[in-house]
Amino acid sequence: MTTTTANTPQTMLSRIIAAGTHQRVLAFASLVVLLIGFSIASPNFMQTSNMIAILQATSVNGVLAVAVTLVIITGGIDLSVGTMMTFCAVITGVVLTYAGMPLLLGVFAAIATGALCGSMSGTFVAKMKIPPFIATLGMMLILKGLSLVISGTRPIYFNDTPGFSLISRGSIIGDIFPAMPIPNGVLILFIVAGVTAYILNRTVLGRYCFALGSNEESVRLSGVNTDRWKIAIYALAGGIVGIAGLLIASRLNSAQPALGLGYELEAIAAVVIGGTSLSGGRGSILGSLIGALIMAVLTNGLRVLSVAQEWQTVVTGAIIILAVYADMMRRKGAS
Amino acid sequence: MTTTTANTPQTMLSRIIAAGTHQRVLAFASLVVLLIGFSIASPNFMQTSNMIAILQATSVNGVLAVAVTLVIITGGIDLSVGTMMTFCAVITGVVLTYAGMPLLLGVFAAIATGALCGSMSGTFVAKMKIPPFIATLGMMLILKGLSLVISGTRPIYFNDTPGFSLISRGSIIGDIFPAMPIPNGVLILFIVAGVTAYILNRTVLGRYCFALGSNEESVRLSGVNTDRWKIAIYALAGGIVGIAGLLIASRLNSAQPALGLGYELEAIAAVVIGGTSLSGGRGSILGSLIGALIMAVLTNGLRVLSVAQEWQTVVTGAIIILAVYADMMRRKGAS
Amino acid sequence: QDIYIPLISKGFQHQFWQAVKSGADQAAAEFGVRITFEGPDNETMVDRQIDMLAAALANNPSAIGFAALDSQAAIPLLQQAADAGIPVIAFDSGVESDIPATTATTDNVAAAALAADKMAELIGGAGKVAVVAHDQTSRTGIDRRDGFLNQIEANYPDIEVVSVQYGAGDQLQSTEVAKAILTANPDLVGMFGTNEGSAIGIVNAIREMATEGVTIIGYDSGKAQTDAIREGLMAGAITQNPVGIGYETVKAAVAAMNGEELPAIIDTGFYYYDQSNIDDAEIQAVLYD
Amino acid sequence: MSYLVEMRGIEKRFPGVHALKSVQFNLRPGEVHALMGENGAGKSTLMKIMSGIYARDGGEMFVDGTPVAPDSPRAAQDLGIGIIHQELSLMNDLTAAQNVLIGREPRRSFGRLDEPELNRRAAEIFASLRLAMDPRTKVSTQTIARQQLIEIAKALSYNPRVLIMDEPTAALNDAEIAELFAVIAKLKADGVGIVYISHRMDEIKRIADRVTILRDGAYIDTLDAADTPLSKIIQLMVGREVTQSRATVPDLSQAPVALEVRGLSRGKDVRDVSFSVRKGEILGFAGLMGAGRTEVARIIFGADPRDAGEIRVGGYAVDILTPHAAVQAGIGYLSEDRKHFGLAVDMTVRANIAMANMAQFTSRTGVLDEGAMKRIAVDYISRLGIRTPSDMQAVRLLSGGNQQKVVIAKWLLRDCDVLIFDEPTRGIDVGAKSEIYALLEDLAAQGRAIIVISSELPEVMRLSHRIAVMCEGRLTGILPGGAQTTQEQIMELATRRDSALTVAEDA
Ligand SMILES: Nc1ncnc2c1ncn2[C@@H]1O[C@H](COP(=O)(O)OP(=O)(O)OP(=O)(O)O)[C@@H](O)[C@H]1O
Ligand SMILES: Nc1ncnc2c1ncn2[C@@H]1O[C@H](COP(=O)(O)OP(=O)(O)OP(=O)(O)O)[C@@H](O)[C@H]1O
Ligand SMILES: [Mg+2]
Ligand SMILES: [Mg+2]
C-alpha cells in the first residue's frame, strides 16, 4: 500500500493526507501519545510558544528528512545531507556577503549548489556504480572540507543582507493572523514537504523513485534510462538540501562552516521512524515529517521536563524503539 | 561469490586468505597504491615506528569493523558499536577500579557486557521485528546515556590495575622479536579477525550469517530457528565490540564515557570499502580489515604530509570514492 | 514558587563542562535556587544550542546562563528573554550584544600566550614546536590556537611552529594526530595541546612512541593530565577556573534578579601549574579530576 | 521462405558451461514455434540472446532477413521482439498498472502522471487477456500465478511482432492456460510469431506449429508438431524412452496415521479443513488457483498463523507456531515459490542443499563438515541430474528447472516423516519429472507420508493414492486415486462453490 494509489477526485491536500494516513496513521499515533504525555507531565509544554519552538526545531531536520526520503525510496542512502546543507549555506554566504549580490540570487545559489552536489552523488551512484553509502560518505567529507576551505574556517554573517534572516525567522502567517506567529521556516518546511509529496506521488520522477527501489533491474529492462532518472532524483534531493541550508543559515543569521556532521543520521532516523523502508520501494513524505516531529517533540519535551541530560539520551533511545515497535504492532494488527 | 567457497584441504590461515583474496585482492590493491604513494611523498612515512602507529590506529576501528561485518552480512546494520564500546569500557572501569576486582574479571565483564547488549539489539530485531537501523540507533542512544550515568560523567582511570594498560600497549611480539615491537592491541586485532573469519567461513553460525542476508524467509522456511541465530550473531558482534572497549580503555588507560559517537560510521565505512554489501549476503572479514587499514593509512599519511586539516577531509572523501571505484572496475574486469 | 535558572553551555560530557556544572551546583545550593545544565554534543551544533535555549525559555525561568557557540545566532531568543525581563548571564564566551548582564569568562588568548611563554622558556627559546588543537572553528579553539601562535610569532623568532592539527578533543583521535606529527617531525622539541583531550593525546603519543626530549604543555586539568605532570611527562599546563565560572554565573544570575549592579566582565582567571606548584592550595582549588 | 527471425550457429559460453553449441532457430510470422529441451538445455539462454539480454559469443541473427545484434532489451523491443521471462521480474511495491506500463506512463505537462489514464489503459490490456484484475492492486499482494499474468500483460502491451514466452504456464492452472491460449490464437491471427517454451508436453500438441529441440546446448532437430508423436519429441529431448504409468494404489488401511489435521481455519483463505495422511501414502491436493492449498500447507508448516484447528503428528497433538517447530515435529514443506521462499540464490548449490539439515553437518563445536556436505551435494546432483558445473556454483546461475531440483534435494535430504511438496515439478522437464515421481514413490514406500499439491491434474492423478480437492478455502471432497477417478470428477469438486454461504459470511 504505497501512497501512490490515491486517485479519487479530491483536492491535492486531502489526497496527500489520505495517501499518507492510509499507512501513516500509525507513527502519527505515537506522536499524539507523546504530545499528550508531555502535556500532562508539564504545564509549560503545551504553550503556543513552545509548540512553535518545536515546529521551528523540526524545520531543518524535517527538510533534510524530506530530501533523504527520496533517496531512500530508490533504495539508496544519503549521508552527505548534513555537510551539503552547510556547504550550500556557505556558498550563499559567499554570494550575499562576500560578493554583495541581491537576496534572490543567494536563494538561487543555495538551491543550485545543492542540486549540483546531489547530481554529483547521483552520478557516482548511477554511472560509476559506487554504492550509495560510499558515494555519499565521500561527498560528506569532501563538502565538509570545502565548506571550511571556502569560508576560511570562520562563520560568514549575513548582517549586510537584512532580509535574509526573515527567510526563517519572519512570519508571514503571523502578520496575517497575529494569534499564530508561525515562523516562515516552518511554513517553508510544509511547502517543501507538500510539493515533494506531490512530485513523489503524481509525477514520473516519483514513480521511478518507487520503481527503482522496488526492482531496478526490471525498470532498466523495460527500457527506462535508469541512470538519468537516478541522477535527477539525487539532484532533486540536493536542491531540497539547499533549502535546508537556507533555513539554517537564516536562522543562525550566519553560515557556520563546521556544522553539519551528525545531521544525516538524525534525518535518516526521522525517515525510518516514519515508516520508510531502508531497502527501498516504500515510503512517504508525510511519514518522514511525522518522524521528524516525533524526534523534535521528544527532545523538547524531555528538556522542558528538566530531565537530566544523560537520562534524556537514554529515554530518547528507548522511546524511539518503542514508537517503532508500537507502529509495527499496529501495522500487523491492521493487516 | 561469497567467501564461503573455500574447500580445498589447506591450512586454516591459507584457507582464510584464499577465501578472502578470491574477491579481495582488489581493495588490497588500493591499499598498496596508497602505501607506495605516501612513501614517495614523505620519507618519514615508511618507518617501522610509523607503520606500527598505523596498525595501532587501526586496532580499535578494525575490531569494530569486524563486529559490524557480521551484522551487515545478515542484512542488518549496527549503529551502536561506538557507544557500546564505551559502555563496555565503563563497565570494566566499574569492575576493576570501583569494585577492585582482578584484571581477568574486568576482561570478562567487557566481553559479557558487549554480548549482552548485542543480544538485546538482536532481540529487538529478531523478536520485535524492529528494523536494525532503529533498534541499534536506540541502543546507541541508550548506551551513550548509560555510560554517562554509570560513570558519573567522568572518566574512570585504571591506575590501580597496572596490568590493564598492557592489554593494548604491551608487546608480547616485541618481547620475543625486539625488532618488531608490534603492540598487543594489533595482535589482538589480528587474532579477533582470524577467529571471526574462521567462525564466518567454517561454522554454522557463519553459514547462517550469509544465509540470513541472502534470503531470510527461505532460511526460516527451511525450519531454521532464525530468531535464535540472529540474536546469537548480534551477541557475538557485541562480544567483539566488548574487546574493542578493552582495547580503547587500555590505550587511554581510562574509560572515557563521552567518547564513541561517530565510531560507528567509521567502522561501517571500513566494512563497505572492504567490499561487503550493505544489502547482506556477501562480505569478508579480510575485506573489512583492509578497509580499516585503508582509512588509517589515509588519515596517517595526510597528517604526516602536514596537509591542512580542511584539505585532509576533502582528499579523504575523494580517495574513498576513488578506491571503491577502482575496486568496482577491477571486479568488473575480472568477471 | 522556586527560582529556576537554566544554564545552556557549549558542551556537557567533557570534564571541563562538568567542572563548570559542579561550580554552578555549588552556588545553586548556596543561594537556594534550582538549576539545570545542558549543552550540545559538540561545539559545532549551533542550532541545537538554540533549540535548547528555546526549550529553557518555555519553562519561564527566573534567569538564564548562556555560553554562546555563536554569539549572533542566539540574539533573537536572548532578546525575547530580555523583553520578558529575564536576566541573561553569559559565561565562558561573550555575546556580542548588551543583553547579558555580565560575562563570567577566562581570557583564553592571554592564557594561551602564557603557555607560549612557558614553552619558550622550557625549550630555550628555539626549535620546532607543534600544536594539537581541539577545534578549528569554535571560539575557544581559535582563541587558544591564535593566542599561542601569535605570541610565538611576536616574541620568539627562533621558534618555528611546524604543524597545527586538530583532534576534536577526542583523546584517541588526538593521540593519532600527535603521533603523525611526531613521525613527520622527528626533531620536534615542544607540543602544546589546547584542551584536556588534546593534551592527553600528546601524552599518549609520546608514551606509545617512547619519544624523548619533547616538552609538552597542556590546557585544563583532569586526572590523566595532573598525573602526567607529576610523572614529569608533561611540563605543565594552563588551567582555567571552571568551577569558578559556574559558581560566578549562578551568583551573578541571582544578583541580576535582585537588580544589583554587575561588572561587564567577571574574569575568573587562569593559572599555569607544573610539578612545583601543583599541590598549592590555590591551584588545587581550580583543578578537577 | 521469409523468416521473421532467424538465428544461425549461435554460440554462448559461461564460466564452466558451454551453454549453446552452434544452435540454429527460425521463426515464421503467425506461427507458434515450441522450443523444447531438458532443464539446462539452453532454451532460456538462446531466447535471452534473441531478446538482447545476453550478447552472443558467435553466430548470426537476422530479423526480416537483415543482420541484427540487439545489445539491450530496448534494442530488441525496437526490433519488435518482446519476452516474458521464466523468472518473474516485477516491481513488487508498484501496482499492476504501474508495472505493465513502466517507462510508458501517460503524462501531462511537467512530468505529471495521468494515473486514471494509466489505469484505464492497463485495464484495457487486462480485459483483452480476459484477466479480472484491478489495475490498482499492488503486485506483492498477488500470488505468483497472477504475477505471471501481469508479466504477460506487460509483454503484450508493447505490441510485439515476436513474442517469446519462457514457461508462461508453469504457474498457471487449466482455466488460465485456456485463456492464455485464446490470446495466443488471436496474436497468431495478427501475424505475430511466438516462441513457446514449456515442459508441459500436452500443450505442445495443442498450440505448436513447429518444434525445435535442443539437447545439452546443441541443436537436434526442427519438426512439424502436427505429424510428430509426443513420444518422439520426448525421446529426442531426453535421448531415451520415458514411460508414463499410473499410480498403483497400495492398501494402506492398516498403516498408522502420520498427520491429522482437524478444523484448520484462517480467515477466508482456509475454512474448516480436516484430513489425514497415513504412513506410506501420497495424498494429492487439487484445486484452482487460490483454492487455498498453499495456505493449508503453510499453516501446517507454521509459516502462517492459524485462527483455529488442531494438528496431530503420529497421533500426538503438536502446537506448531514456527517452521522450526514443524521441522522438529518431522514435517517438511517445499514452497511453490522457489525464488522467494525456497532458495538463497546467491549461495552455492551445496549450501542450499544442506540448509534444512545443518545439524547433520555440524560438529559439537559448531564447525561445519564441508567434506560431508560436498559428498551429499554431489550425490544429489547426480541422482536428480542437476546441470551445474560444480556443487559450488551459485544457484542464481542455474537454469530454472535445475534450481527447482536443488529445492527438492534440500527436502529429500531432510528426510521428514511428513513431506509437503507444493508444485514440486514446476519448470522441470519430462525426463526429470519421472525421476522425481519415482523418488516420491520410493519415499512413500519407505513409510513417509507425502502430500503433493499440484495444479497439473495429470500429475495429481499420476501420483496420488488419494486426491483431496479444494475450492475457495474449503475441502470439498477426497477422491480415491488410481484409474477409477476421472478429471471430470476432480473438476466438479474444484468448482463446487458455496456462494450462498460466502455472501452470508461477507455480509
Ligand atoms: N549467467 C549464467 N552464468 C553461468 N551459467 C549460466 C548462466 N545462465 C545460464 N547458465 C547455464 O547455462 C545452461 C543453460 O541454461 P538455460 O537457462 O538456458 O536452460 P533452460 O534450457 O532454459 O533450462 P530450464 O528448462 O531449466 O529453464 C545451464 O547449465 C545453466 O546453468
Ligand atoms: N484472485 C485472487 N486475487 C488475489 N489474491 C488471491 C486470489 N486468489 C487467491 N488469492 C490469495 O491466495 C491465497 C490462497 O491461495 P493459495 O495460494 O493458498 O491457493 P492455491 O490453491 O495454492 O493456489 P495457487 O495455484 O495459486 O498456488 C490467499 O492468500 C488469497 O488471498
Ligand atoms: Mg529456462
Ligand atoms: Mg499454491
Automatic annotation (TrEMBL), chains A, B:
It is found in: Cell membrane. It comes from the Bacteria. It holds the Pfam family BPD_transp_2. Its main location: membrane. Keywords: Cell membrane, Membrane, Transmembrane, Transmembrane helix. The chain crosses the membrane at residues 25-45, 51-72, 79-99, 105-126, 133-156, 176-200, 231-252, 285-305. One of its GO terms (molecular function) is transmembrane transporter activity. One of its GO terms (cellular component) is plasma membrane. It is a multi-pass membrane protein. InterPro entries: ABC_transp_permease. This is Monosaccharide ABC transporter membrane protein, CUT2 family. It comes from Loktanella salsilacus.
UniProtKB/TrEMBL annotation, chain D:
It is a peripheral membrane protein. Pfam families: ABC_tran (PF00005). GO terms for biological process: monosaccharide transmembrane transport. InterPro entries: AAA+_ATPase, ABC_carbohydrate_import_ATPase, ABC_transporter-like_ATP-bd, ABC_transporter-like_CS, P-loop_NTPase. It is found in: Cell inner membrane; Cell membrane. Keywords: ATP-binding, Cell membrane, Membrane, Nucleotide-binding, Repeat, Sugar transport, Translocase, Transport. GO terms for cellular component: plasma membrane. Residues 5-241, 247-497 form the ABC transporter domain. It comes from the Bacteria. GO terms for molecular function: ATP binding; ATP hydrolysis activity. This is Monosaccharide ABC transporter ATP-binding protein, CUT2 family. It comes from Loktanella salsilacus. The lineage of its organism: Bacteria, Pseudomonadati, Pseudomonadota, Alphaproteobacteria, Rhodobacterales.
